[in-house]
Amino acid sequence: MMAPSLLSFSDSEMEICGYIWFEDRSIVDEATEASWELLRIGIIPSFRNRSMGSALLQKGLEFLSQQRHYRTTIDPGSAASRSSADTGHLRESTTECDRILLEVAETNSAARKLYESFGFNVIHRRKNYYADSDALIMERPGGNVQ
Length: 146
What we know:
The protein is built from two helices and eight strands.
């Protein structure tokens, strides 16, 4: 499992504008797929409504597209050539991110619009998760950056 990744974002004058935090979820998914979760994204109030959220999410997705996950699988080989003690050979491979997940309040229309513009789709709803809203679980394929 890779460590969580926190990226900060600066404007042209190198002033911090915001941050984005992803976590590698592959270990939770039992390494059946390489997935990341967007845990937090934040823009400093004085930089809001200037497309900084979009730029930050774009940079975050570019970062994820460069990450590689290492998987170890068992290659069972030929059943005829194996003895009862032989379990096959371990094989390691690398793969790109399969999917990216996030959670957002249904009432947060600005965030939902941003995520949808980057190809995220609702895959699950958590009823009454927040005091005033359901939580929506959104997903998009990994790999290609929009």
